[in-house]
């Protein structure tokens, strides 16, 4: 498996990606868990998934997505309590 530097470079090379942030979240004896934040216009999810899988990793969840001409900030609502 490549380093997170190499993984970020590979994701950053995907058309439509303008920025990538990868941070190590947890390490155990068998796996490293990372959080990847990607920004850009018209990002091809399948291309991102393919690069991640080619690097020997898998996507466990997608915890947030912003789309549209205007980015909408997340706010606290009564359901969050």
Summed up:
With 81 residues, the chain is α+β, with helices and mostly antiparallel strands. The protein has helices at 4-12, 45-54; strands spanning 17-27, 32-40.
Tell me the number of structural domains: 1
Quantity of strands, as a count? 2
What class would the helix/strand composition place it in? alpha+beta
Which fold name fills CATH's third level, the topology?
Alpha-Beta Plaits
**Could you name the ranges where pLDDT drops below 50 across 5 or more consecutive residues?**
none
CATH architecture: 2-Layer Sandwich
| Rg, Cα atoms, Å | 14 Å
Helix tally?
2
Cα shape: globular
Overall pLDDT metric: 89
What strand line-up does the widest sheet have? 1-2
Going by CATH, the homologous superfamily would be MTH889-like domain
State the share of residues found in helices, binned by percent: 10-25%
- Estimate what percentage of residues fall within beta strands: 15-25%
SSE topology sketch:
Layout: H1 4-12, E1 17-27, E2 32-40, H2 45-54
Antiparallel strand pairs: 1-2
Describe what this molecule looks like in 3D.
- This protein has 81 residues and is of the alpha+beta class.
- It has a single domain (4-80), classed as 2-Layer Sandwich (Alpha-Beta Plaits), CATH 3.30.70.
- It is built from 2 helices and 2 strands, in the order αββα.
- It has helices at 4-12, 45-54; strands at 17-27, 32-40.
- It has a two-stranded antiparallel ribbon.
- The radius of gyration is 14 Å and the shape is globular.
